[in-house]
Amino acid sequence: MFGLDASEPAKKSLKIFQENNINTVVELGAGLGRDSIFFSLNNLSVTSLDYSQSGINIINKKINDNKLKNINAKLFDIRQKLPFKDNSIDGCFSHMLYCMALSNQDLFNLNREICRILKPNGLNIYTVRNEHDGDYKNGIHIGEDMYENDGFIVHFFNKTKIKHLTDGFKNINIESFEEGNFPRKLYFVVNKKIN
Asked: I need a surface site. Which of 1, 30, 120, 154 has the fewest CB within 10 A?
């Protein structure tokens, strides 16, 4: 669905991670692993988490095919407590995970868990489809800012919602970008954990 090459947000995030001495990264909602593999190939230690067993199987095949030693993939529901110790991870990355059918409370809980596992000054970089996207307010309104189009539920964000998800963090950047042929309209968000 999204191609095989690393996403533009992952390429941009790699530079930010490198500039901030981020060495261990968790990708939340890794899908088929295109961004996790990209981070691994660029010398980051990566844990890929995804809800789909078939996605995890594909990532594990890519890990084996590329003989990568600095990456592992785990089946995981991000609505649960993240499987890492407090203050143990340098950075988190997710591309459109927050746009899934997650309630505002789910997102608040996820943000709290990310804050818990990140080291002081750790970075949480994520992307979300925004209120300027062509699918926003189209389809069936599910509740909150979620709409169902063609059987797929998307949670849309505005800058106010992003700023509500900064407990324990300082927002460093919110930047608009477009992706795909539609195109999808998104925000690229960088939050730094407060000491």
From this structure: 1
